[in-house]
Amino acid sequence: MSGVWVLGELLTAHVGLVTLLGDNIKGGALDAVPSLSLNRVSRQRLPALSSGAKRWTERVQATAQARDYEEQVAIIAMAHEAADYQIGAFAGVVDVSVTPAGDGPDFILTDPTVWGGSCDFIVSYTET
What are 97-126's pLDDT values in tens digits? Predict the structure, then answer.
């Protein structure tokens, strides 16, 4: 598992994103808001963790692909609504915590009619 799967589960559960993006959601993935892992660090095993469990902290970026700047801003705002300060068990991992880690940059993709922007999250979780 990874923080990308955690973020994907949170984003695809957000009613506003599902409504806005409609057909861009396929197989539980948001095609209009792809996520990628920027880095992942295994943290020291804590004595309280069960044998074989490992704690991870991962920086995950969600990239909005929109028709215009207003839609891009709306997608980023809804990504924050979906993921900011979530705790619990998601995507097959436990002890999940998600915190915002900044927005930007805005950019134009190879297709100049597609507006892009990103937001980062720190996703911590325990793999058992």
Answer: 999 999 988 887 788 888 889 999 999 998
Q: How many CA atoms lie within 13 A of 29 on its CB side?
A: 9
Whether this model's pTM surpasses 0.70: yes
Q: Which helix (H) or strand (E) holds 125?
A: strand 115-127
Side chain identity at 115, as an amino acid letter?
Answer: W
What does each C-alpha distance from 32 to 29, 89, 97, 118 come to in angstroms? Answer: 9, 25, 24, 11
For 57-71, write each residue's pLDDT tens digit. 999 999 888 888 998
Cβ neighbours of residue 112 closer than 8 Å, sequence gap 6 or more: none
**Helices assigned H by DSSP within the chain:** 3-12, 15-21, 69-83
Phi/psi for 6 (5° steps) reads -60, -50
Rounded to the nearest angstrom, the gap between the alpha carbon of residue 54 and the centroid of all alpha carbons in its chain is 20
> Hey, what are 127's tokens?
């793999």
Decide: 30 and 11 in contact? Cβ < 8 Å: yes
Measure the CA–CA gap between 105 and 117, rounded to whole angstroms: 6
